[in-house]
């Protein structure tokens, strides 16, 4: 949780969002957000972008949910080709 102040922005008002929260929410300068008024709770900001980039936490959850469910075509020890040398 962070505390910030409402400031004037032209004829409107705005809120500065701390960088740590922006990074965690995967938002940046120019990101479009939806503003919702939630009864008895306050204001909720949500990303308006449907195909936004997933955060590391979301990617990890997706990975963990899919782990062990795919069926690879090759066994773990099968060679792809017979290259020998210093490929790395």
Automatic annotation (TrEMBL):
Keywords: DNA-binding. GO terms for molecular function: DNA binding. Residues 55-88 are annotated as: Disordered. The keyword Protease does not apply. Residues 7-53 form the SpoVT-AbrB domain. The keyword DNA-binding applies. InterPro entries: SpoVT-AbrB_dom, SpoVT-AbrB_sf. Pfam families: MazE_antitoxin. Residues 79-88 have a biased composition (Acidic residues). This is AbrB/MazE/SpoVT family DNA-binding domain-containing protein. It comes from Cohnella cellulosilytica.
């Amino acid at each position: 949780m962070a505390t910030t102040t409402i400031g004037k922005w032209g004829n409107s008002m705005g809120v500065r969002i701390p960088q740590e929260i922006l990074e965690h929410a995967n938002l940046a300068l120019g990101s479009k957000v939806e503003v919702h008024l939630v009864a008895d709770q306050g204001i909720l900001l949500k990303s308006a972008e449907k195909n936004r980039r997933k955060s590391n936490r979301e990617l990890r959850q997706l990975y963990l949910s899919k782990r062990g469910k795919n069926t690879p075509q090759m066994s773990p020890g099968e060679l792809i080709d017979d290259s020998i040398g210093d490929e790395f």
